[in-house]
Queue: 3 jobs
Job 1
Amino acid sequence: MATTRKTTDEVTQEQPKGLFHKLHSAKQHIGKVAKNATNPHFKKSYADINALLETVEPVLWDNGLVLLQPIKDDVVMTQIVDIETGEMVESWMRLPLITDPQKILSAVTYFRRGTLQSLLSLQAIDDDGQTAAAAPKVKPAITNDRFEKALLAISKNEFTVEQLQSTYLLTDLQLKAIQL
């Protein structure tokens, strides 16, 4: 009985590539993202979300990956999913408490850009990072409704008291409630 050996190329073609292999391949082809916008406050250029998507998505698609950026429970997520296996990597940021719809959309866009850059380790200019670093960190207040949701999440071990206290400025009554 004769056996035939497969060449390395034949073996590689038959075996499905894993998520991280596909990400590695994609990152080799993404390159630098063109800066197409200017921050008027600092007069520095940066790549906006559209430039990122135009650069990244075609390369991800070519590697069998899909980019998703859902928002769930005040969290902006960037997910890259292997369409063959369903494996996924993600990066996320919690939205601050904002009530103005235009400011919310601005924050969502900014966080989409940030989580995508972070997840793929893309080269980026910190267009306003100096101001953020220099500005004192002021925690937002938390509404009673959001506080109740946080307590529920804590009871389900989905969130911690430490995360709640480090994220929001709590009232004396709220501080007493989390001590119970």
Note: Residues 101-120 form the longest helix (20 residues).
Job 2
Amino acid sequence: MKTFKTFVTEAKFSPKNFPSGVGNNDDFSGAGERTTYAPENSTDYKFKEGFPLAKNSKLYSKDGRVVQTLKKGDNIHFTAPATLHRASEFNIRGRMTLAPISLSGFDKKVDGYVVISSVEKPSGNSQGRVGSGSKTQDSVALKVKDIAVSKDIEVETEFRTARAGSTKPDLVMTIAGKEVQFEIKGTSNRKAPITFFDKSVKRVGKKPQILEDIADVYRTTLRVSEGTVSSLMRKGKFPSTFVGLIDFFKSRDPKIGLAGDSGVIKSGKLPPEFAITDKLILTKMRKEILDHFKEGGDDYFVVHSRSGDTFEIYYVGGGTAGNVLDMPELPEFKSFVLATYGGASSGSTRVGLKIKL
């Protein structure tokens, strides 16, 4: 078996290095921000060469038998789509997290399961632009150039993209002599809701403004069996804030709450009432999302469907360039939900705004 020598390694895999939205991956918590190295699909993947083992490891079968002993330095491939599993699923003792691997390729059949912390992940230059994110940004830039050329619009060759986890714009291009900013989301299942934003929130400290704004819409529009949420919150003296809204629903169901709250799962749990299909509320939510784009200076929102390599480009009007590409406006929402997004991060509840267009 060949050893892995393509890049230098320095750290072990954690659940945060596996794709979100695949299997039960979001139920697993880990240190740091999500930086995906394991494959989400078999068509758009950077680390095809695999990863080395950091130590001697066991290769388990689905029934927990040790089918092979692997040596430190042996090369393995997480198979696509990369899923996470607890040791208890295989009747293995301990709190280990395992993932399916192949000894021959990420797109080959599963040979067994290994403990992910025994596998080394990329470091150094590899972490600047990883997985499919940076490729999506580059692909969007090329698509935008094609659109501009087809419409006889001047577009500069150079463009800027953001690093993984950065708060900077995903893509900035110069079109018709103006700086144009793009917010980009990739998806492997276009029919599923799209996670527009991913925010972290704690009980103490400042809350992301978009969560406060969305909480205001929920508070003023939702009804429960006893009446409107806003009137019941006033009666119960709950503050008109995101945390106040969570505490109102926690008073009705003790399992609802933020990470660290008594009686609440580690990642936190938000109310099921936060899932919305009512057209009136969806219209208000859409306005809040557009306002958020405007605050961030985004001109366009792009959905890249990786399965078909297709692009949807919507004008959201946050910049000063105007609709230079003459793209359609962001569609009306079919559904909207505020839900936990993966495990707790440094004691914060990670919240995703999941929208179906």
Note: The helical segments are 133-150, 209-221, 229-235, 242-252, 279-296.
Job 3
Amino acid sequence: MTDRSLMEELETKTTSDRAPRQSREQSERPKVWQPASLLPEPDQQPGYAYRWIRVASAGKSDGQNLMSKRREGWEPVRIEEQPQFNGMTDPDSRYKDNIEVGGLLLCKAPKEMMDSRKEYFARKNQAQMDSVDNNFMRESDSRMPLFREKRSTTSFGSGNR
């Protein structure tokens, strides 16, 4: 047997032993069912932040919450701005031209204003934390410190050989 015929025989044998190649479509993972989210996600428009705001709870109107959010800068989103919500809104809604789902009204506000709001609350939170720390540390005494630096040592053998 020549080298050439031996190579051809080996090649035929190995190609017939191989598993058939699978395309990407065949090896794709099966789709997994997930429950639908309670609140649909709006299409994000540049420069705006979106939020669902409570306008009713347990069947009772909550106008006070809506008015406080409106004073913060949130304004209701009109149905024309988010056409994918057509037919999804509550039929008994008091806000016919807006998007209400389950007592929650979709609202938007300028992103700069919401970033400013976030910074305001971060500063307020930090001031409260500093106040608590200062009040706690005021009680500290050098003879009985509230925090003691704990140190541990590790030694290996006696050192004499």
Note: Helices lie at 3-17, 63-72, 111-138.
